[in-house]
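During the no-cost extension, the postdoctoral fellow (Dr. R.K.) reprocessed legacy sequence entries with the updated structure-token encoder. One reprocessed record is reproduced below for audit purposes.
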Amino acid sequence: MSKAAELANLIGNINAGGGGVNRNLIINGAMQCNQRGSYTITTTGSPEYGGPDRFHMWSYTSTEEVVGDVTQSTDVPSGNGFAYSRKFDVTTAESAVATGEALVMAQYIESQNVQHLEYGTSSAKAVTMSFWIKTTKTGTYCFFLQQDDGDRIYVKEYTVDVSNTWEKKIITIPGDASGTLNNDNGRGLWCGWVLMAGTDRQGTANAWRATGADYATSNQVNSVDSTSNNIYLTGVQLEVGQNATTFEHEPFERTLAKCQRYFQKNTNPGTTSYPSSGGYARGHYLFPVQMRADPAMSFTDSGSGGSAIANVTNVDGFYRTYGSLGASEAGTFTYTSAAEL
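Re-encoded structure tokens follow.
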């Protein structure tokens, strides 16, 4: 490629991604926000959230032997402005991968946030994923981009060259003129880093295809085959165009607000008003940001009086009602609120 063509590509990449602000389609790529804290995966066959926000572990079936701890780590590539990474520490190894098994680290991107990619049209745009990875097991790994609405997937191989050493990887994926990205608040793109994959979860690389459950190629290593293995990830950025730009560091409060659309919690107990003459009281709460959908709520009572008898929740907030309160009592509680994709 000529120098002029390279410059044109770079300029197009920056313009398409919105310049220096909001070009990263990944949320919490620097692993700053960690609302849930540490988590041990249970391989339930569904997204399991824990450790840095928005990222999850997914086991394709519920029969994996592998168990591991997900934490926010301070082990980072030096000189790049990162304070945290996402660490997966294998505590029970998967010595033999069954044909139908797969284990991935991943993030869903809301469909209405990727409409500008114009999948399904002749103007479908390429995207570039860049990230830093450090892992014990060297060899060939796979990254995939999947469309839930169209059940289409693109798999790309990359190589970890040196054990337990931070390496930066850059992967470009072409736009999909036959793709589908519905304009709604559902799952638009699924970005996944494969840690192991059985033969039934393997397909071809470097092409959009309709077999959406084949996440890797036959070259994929089993990176969870020893309890000595660790996998670290940080600096994750997905942007429009064929070139990777410098990672978009953003203020913590902006990252937190983005994460709270999908999960939030309070650590200081909320409190209802003091009761009416009948012993009832209600507390009204607005979420700091509107959630993606009506959330699933979990409450923990922290007071000694009365009992919760009703909760009403929507994307904007909730109220919680207590009964049987004494004259000087108020209902108190902490909560979590989840509206993950």
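Residues 1-19 have pLDDT under 50 and may be disordered. The two ends are 40 Å apart (CA to CA). The remaining legacy entries will be reprocessed before the final report is submitted.
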